[in-house]
Amino acid sequence: MAISQSNHFSAPVWLAVALCSLLLGCQPQSAPNSLQQVLQQGTLKVGTRYGPTTYYQGVDGPQGYEYELAAGFADYLGVNLEIMPYYNLDELYPQLRSQHVNIVATGLTVSDPLRADFKIGPAYHEVSQKLVFKQGQTWPRSPEELQGTVKVVASSSHAATLAKLEQNYALDWQETNELDEEELLQQVLEGELSYTLADSHTLAVMRRRHPELAIAFTVQEPRPIAWLLSKDLDDSLLAALIDYFGQLQKSGQLKVLNDKYFGHIQTFDYVDTRQFIKATEEILPRYRSLFEQFSGTTDWRLLAAMSYQESHWNPKAKSPTGVRGMMMLTLATARDLGIKSRLDAAQSIQGGSHYFQQLRERIPARIQEPDRTWFALAAYNVGWGHVEDARILTQRQGGNPDLWVDVKQRLPLLRQKKYYKTLKYGYARGHEAVHYVANIRRYYDTLVWLDENQGLPLDQAPTEQTTNQENSDE
């Protein structure tokens, strides 16, 4: 869902004047400036490229980090959004020069050649560039140790980085207009290419799906991402863009969007990711129909991700604290839910789904998705009372208690006496709740991608049935 659907911006005075001039004739205009042209046409044309962090067509429609930002800007201007995706940058940049698009939002870092050719919008994120190779191959630790070809997208910031690096090192590198960044990473996976460059945020997403993608070294330290505008136009559209991002920063919505796409993938565990993907092939098919059957209003893949975090899809799982089963319910919770045996997969999944829904319904109605879900997940792990304490602490410290990105910074403070002694529910291992939510979000993202792109296996074996003796947990 684009941020424009959940965020309403107040137009600045100069924008109101422009609208008045165009729509009501309050002020004669000899020729409309770049902002007025967009308002007059009623459409913001944004050029971008296909990719997991830029723009793609998901099951529920257009998605992507750059897409959501662009949709928000169109909403801010009060115009329609027209996304114009291109397969390579050599086709995209001329569209901006000829003013067939108003803005280019590629999600790439701003290089010196781009600064020379275009106007640069405000920076809204930072990424570094990594040299990527396949796990198990020889690991180069520096440019001198490269033993193969590096291939990157033509006219990209990656190409500019290699051109600059070539001044000091003997490199074998190529540019291509035939492949995008994701396809180059796929070639590395398949052993067809030795190396490529990838931005850190794109690579973080891709490694959740392909853990064999390994980082050799950082080629370029973090640099800003920004949108591009034509140098031949005045600064009126740029001024509106600066104001828009300023409002995003001030409201906290930019922080929320960054957390939505990248906040849960900052860390990477190769072994855990491999084990999870293997489990989706070998274990999940036994229980998929149960997750679908009992998910209710919850996405069954989120329920499955919760269960994997809780028990690794082991119906007989047991923790030292006494919680048991696929959804690791306490005995008291199971009794409240009418669950006779926590070790029966069907009962456990049904009970866990019902309990999770109860938690989500307790959350104040003003808290929107996806934050509502993240709060419910944290409450499933640490209890709603402790989540409420963290929200109170967040408000005391000037944060927004209704945003997960702010509250998750305070949950770990519930371990410190100077904080928990002032709160109703006292001490809690809040840091575990933060990790819990992040892990489930990663598992969920991977399940969604596998389901929509490769297809998760259907049930391959009968689900387990309850037997009084085998499944009794009393």
What is the spatial order of strands in the main beta sheet? 4-1-5
Sheet/helix structural class: alpha/beta
Q: How much is the radius of gyration in Å?
A: 25 Å
- The residue fraction in helices comes out at 40-55%
Number of helices: 20
Would you count the extended β strands for me? Answer: 12
Distance N to C terminus? 45 Å
Largest sheet: 3 strands, parallel
What low-confidence regions span 5 or more consecutive residues with pLDDT below 50?
1-8, 19-26, 462-470
Query: Percent of residues in beta strands?
Result: 5-15%
Shape: globular
Can you describe this structure?
It is a single chain. Helix 2 (34-41) packs across helix 9 and helix 12 packs across helix 13. This protein has 20 helices and 12 strands. It has helices spanning 13-24, 34-41, 65-77, 89-97, 112-117, 157-165, 181-189, 200-209, 236-251, 253-263, 270-282, 284-294, 300-311, 331-336, 345-362, 371-382, 384-396, 404-410, 417-420, 430-454, and strands at residues 43-49, 56-58, 61-63, 80-86, 103-104, 118-120, 125-134, 150-153, 173-176, 196-199, 213-225, 228-230. It is globular, with a radius of gyration of 25 Å. The two termini are 45 Å apart. Helix 6 links the parallel strand 8 (150-153) and strand 9. Helices cover 47% and strands 13% of the residues. Residues 1-8, 19-26 and 462-470 have low confidence and may be disordered. With 474 residues, it is of the alpha/beta class. 42% of the residues are buried. The strands form 5 sheets. Strands 4-1-5 form a 3-stranded parallel β-sheet, with helices on both faces.
